Amino acid sequence: MSLLILMVLSCFCVVFLNKKDQVVAVINCFGVWSAFSLTYWGGSGVSWESLSELFCVDIYSSSLISLTLWVCGISIMVSSALVNLRGTFNLFWVLVTLLAFMLVQCFMVNTLAMFYVLFESTLVPMISIIGIWGGQFERVPSIQYIAAYTVGGSFPLLLVFTAMELHSGSSFMWFICSKMDFNWIFWTACFLGFLIKLPAYPFHTWLPKAHVQAPVGGSVILAGILLKLGGYGITRLMMLFSYTLESFGIFVIVLSLYGSVYGAVMCIRQSDVKKLIAFSSVPHMAFPVIGLFSCTEVGLVGAYIMLVSHGFISSGLFVLCGISSELVHSRKIKAMNEGVRAIPSLGFIWLVMIMANLGVPPCPVIISEVLSVVSAIALWPWVFVPLALYFVLSGVYSFSLYCQLTTSKVKHKTEVLFNEVTLKDMKAMYLLLYPLVEVLFKWDLWAMA
């Protein structure tokens, strides 16, 4: 509760500053909020702490709160350095701050009814960001995709919450009900909206459209935070309804295995860097689905390592894509090659982020992948076959992207706008890399015991 009060008071003070000073003040505020959110981090396990009558936190929600505030601050920092952000920038940071405020409440509320309201409310600032600063041609179709998939997929969830309020008088999510025999229809109604939000295959088609049309700051928030709402919602419902391994979960795991291979193949076929990064989120989000629906402690830990690590890595890749595309005013790999080769430091950072995205040790992604594979093999040993195929294909598209960005057969002097690469861009990349080191040393934080 104190974090929300601090956010409101800080924003109230920022309003009275000059417009030039507001951006710096807001970025510093997000840094202070992120540091303050670390006070909510308790010991590992499922123990929770009540902050008020409306808010409760545990290690799963508090880690995502810190991720939210950190990534939103990076989004404002990066967007303030880009030259193609149309309109008033003050409106952009207001929308991002409003979105962060909603997301923090979403991870803190203790009733599923309020969680659903805030879950749907996050669409409004995101759609506004895409509509105002998105691409010129397909902004409206991408907004329609996001709204239709999110609202339509989560409508059955509204019916579940309504039935809980009518029959039991409460939708308090920290009470764990006794195990009951629910059918496929009930589990589909509970998990469909969250599987779409992740997104899990085959509900992923809205994601590339949204990422391509969104500005860099919007893509950073969308990949870094909004996708994680799906994993968090699945965790809460599994704890509430005492979900154990059932045929529904096995079916979802099979779809995720196929989706990981499909997503890697789609990444190989892309010539647009931003769309490639968007498609790479589909196989990465398959690992949290596999880990959570395996109903094992190993899978749970692996799922949250991937959720948090992917929030920083995917955000960093979108920031790099925005920096590189500003140099050549194109997102095509062949065109972006000139800008990356002209500035060697960009090539090195591309290498680091691609290796982190691939899961090269000691990146925490490799820990998540190993734990998810172990939890899946415990269900059925032959699961290793599609996962091994995915690992091969992910290596292909990752190294292919790096080689196409840094090498060229044509030798001529490249012409880029050097003034568009600023210290603020590089600072954002360093700030996204630092939390990965913390996750690497604290990977057992989400263990049950």
Automatic annotation (TrEMBL):
<feature type="signal peptide">
    <location>
        <begin position="1"/>
        <end position="25"/>
    </location>
</feature>
<keyword id="KW-0520">NAD</keyword>
<keyword id="KW-0813">Transport</keyword>
<dbReference type="GO" id="GO:0008137">
    <property type="term" value="F:NADH dehydrogenase (ubiquinone) activity"/>
</dbReference>
<keyword id="KW-0249">Electron transport</keyword>
<comment type="similarity">
    <text>Belongs to the complex I subunit 4 family.</text>
</comment>
<feature type="domain" description="NADH:ubiquinone oxidoreductase chain 4 N-terminal">
    <location>
        <begin position="2"/>
        <end position="104"/>
    </location>
</feature>
<keyword id="KW-0830">Ubiquinone</keyword>
<dbReference type="Pfam" id="PF01059">
    <property type="entry name" value="Oxidored_q5_N"/>
</dbReference>
<dbReference type="GO" id="GO:0015990">
    <property type="term" value="P:electron transport coupled proton transport"/>
</dbReference>
<feature type="transmembrane region" description="Helical">
    <location>
        <begin position="184"/>
        <end position="203"/>
    </location>
</feature>
<dbReference type="Pfam" id="PF00361">
    <property type="entry name" value="Proton_antipo_M"/>
</dbReference>
<dbReference type="GO" id="GO:0003954">
    <property type="term" value="F:NADH dehydrogenase activity"/>
</dbReference>
<feature type="transmembrane region" description="Helical">
    <location>
        <begin position="146"/>
        <end position="164"/>
    </location>
</feature>
<comment type="function">
    <text>Core subunit of the mitochondrial membrane respiratory chain NADH dehydrogenase (Complex I) which catalyzes electron transfer from NADH through the respiratory chain, using ubiquinone as an electron acceptor. Essential for the catalytic activity and assembly of complex I.</text>
</comment>
<feature type="transmembrane region" description="Helical">
    <location>
        <begin position="215"/>
        <end position="234"/>
    </location>
</feature>
<protein>
    <recommendedName>
        <fullName>NADH-ubiquinone oxidoreductase chain 4</fullName>
        <ecNumber>7.1.1.2</ecNumber>
    </recommendedName>
</protein>
<feature type="domain" description="NADH:quinone oxidoreductase/Mrp antiporter transmembrane">
    <location>
        <begin position="111"/>
        <end position="387"/>
    </location>
</feature>
<keyword id="KW-0812">Transmembrane</keyword>
<dbReference type="InterPro" id="IPR003918">
    <property type="entry name" value="NADH_UbQ_OxRdtase"/>
</dbReference>
<dbReference type="GO" id="GO:0048039">
    <property type="term" value="F:ubiquinone binding"/>
</dbReference>
<feature type="transmembrane region" description="Helical">
    <location>
        <begin position="90"/>
        <end position="108"/>
    </location>
</feature>
<keyword id="KW-0496">Mitochondrion</keyword>
<dbReference type="InterPro" id="IPR001750">
    <property type="entry name" value="ND/Mrp_TM"/>
</dbReference>
<feature type="transmembrane region" description="Helical">
    <location>
        <begin position="342"/>
        <end position="360"/>
    </location>
</feature>
<keyword id="KW-1278">Translocase</keyword>
<feature type="transmembrane region" description="Helical">
    <location>
        <begin position="240"/>
        <end position="264"/>
    </location>
</feature>
<keyword id="KW-0472">Membrane</keyword>
<keyword id="KW-0679">Respiratory chain</keyword>
<feature type="transmembrane region" description="Helical">
    <location>
        <begin position="114"/>
        <end position="134"/>
    </location>
</feature>
<dbReference type="InterPro" id="IPR000260">
    <property type="entry name" value="NADH4_N"/>
</dbReference>
<keyword id="KW-1133">Transmembrane helix</keyword>
<dbReference type="GO" id="GO:0031966">
    <property type="term" value="C:mitochondrial membrane"/>
</dbReference>
<dbReference type="GO" id="GO:0042773">
    <property type="term" value="P:ATP synthesis coupled electron transport"/>
</dbReference>
<feature type="transmembrane region" description="Helical">
    <location>
        <begin position="300"/>
        <end position="321"/>
    </location>
</feature>
<keyword id="KW-0732">Signal</keyword>
<feature type="transmembrane region" description="Helical">
    <location>
        <begin position="380"/>
        <end position="403"/>
    </location>
</feature>
<feature type="transmembrane region" description="Helical">
    <location>
        <begin position="276"/>
        <end position="294"/>
    </location>
</feature>
<feature type="transmembrane region" description="Helical">
    <location>
        <begin position="59"/>
        <end position="83"/>
    </location>
</feature>
